[in-house]
Amino acid sequence: MKFHRFTLSIAVMTLLSGVAFAQNHAEMQKEAAAKSEAPKSDMHKSVENAAPSDAQKSFDQLKTLAGTWQGTLTTDPPNPEIDGAHPQITLRVTSRGNAIVHEMKEAGTPDDAAKYDHPVTMLYVDSGRLTLVHYCDAGNRPRMTAKASPDGKTVEFEFADLSGGNDYGHMHHAVFTVIDENHHTEDWTYMMPGDKPMHAHMDLTRKN
């Protein structure tokens, strides 16, 4: 008998808690609906209508370069070993639009990153700043941040810091310039051992 009364009381309590939860849930839904229908404050409107930051504008500009590009590379000071090379650049927007993957290799070489140069660069907006991290074949990861573009077509990245060793030098500076939808240039400065800069200019045409 005691067990019967105990199980009955448990059942009643469960039923009552279920009813209370349903009523509370319905009230919460009504409150949420009322809030959503209420006029938005000026602060909410200003947030929604806020203009994109300079970093976001530059990032959106770089997104237009998504695709595969090929061109010619020249160096300063001249480097006979790589002058006249034909780089192939691939840019891909990923992570629900929050990042850009930039890959570089010599056109015509197999997709074998263990035998051929194939550096990867990630671009993303971090705390209101457009950031570039270059995963270099030299085994390090320089990080750069973008300056505001004066003309909306040029995005310049300045060196911030370096992770990994610097025995073979590191990538130090980068500039992307959009000419039109099928033509852009990239300028990369590599800091050789002894802090000797090597500048590489790539004139690129869209393949797809």
Notes on the protein architecture:
The protein is an alpha+beta fold and 208 residues long. It has two domains: 2-44; 54-206, Lipocalin (Beta Barrel). Helices cover 25% and strands 43% of the residues. The chain has three helices and ten strands. It has helices at 2-37, 42-48, 54-63, and strands at 67-76, 87-94, 99-106, 120-126, 129-135, 141-147, 154-163, 170-180, 183-192, 196-206. Strands 1-2-3-4-5-6-7-8-9-10 form a ten-stranded antiparallel β-barrel. The protein is globular and about 50 Å long. The chain starts with a helix and ends with a strand. The model is unreliable at 1-25 and 43-48 (pLDDT under 50).
- Which whole number gives the mean pLDDT? 83
- The total count of helices amounts to 3
The first-level CATH class of the largest domain is given as Mainly Beta
Q: Roughly what percent helix?
A: 25-40%
**Structural class, please?**
alpha+beta
Describe the strand arrangement of the main beta sheet, using strand numbers.
1-2-3-4-5-6-7-8-9-10
Q: Secondary-structure element order, as H and E?
A: HHHEEEEEEEEEE
Radius of gyration: 28 Å
Number of strands: 10
Structural domain tally: 2
Strand composition percent: 35-45%
Biggest sheet character? 10 strands, antiparallel, barrel
Low confidence ranges:
1-25, 43-48
What does the overall shape look like?
A: globular
Annotated CATH topology of the largest domain: Lipocalin
Beginning-to-end CA distance, first to last residue: 81 Å
What would you say the CATH architecture of the largest domain is?
A: Beta Barrel
CATH H level of the largest domain: which superfamily?
Answer: Calycin beta-barrel core domain
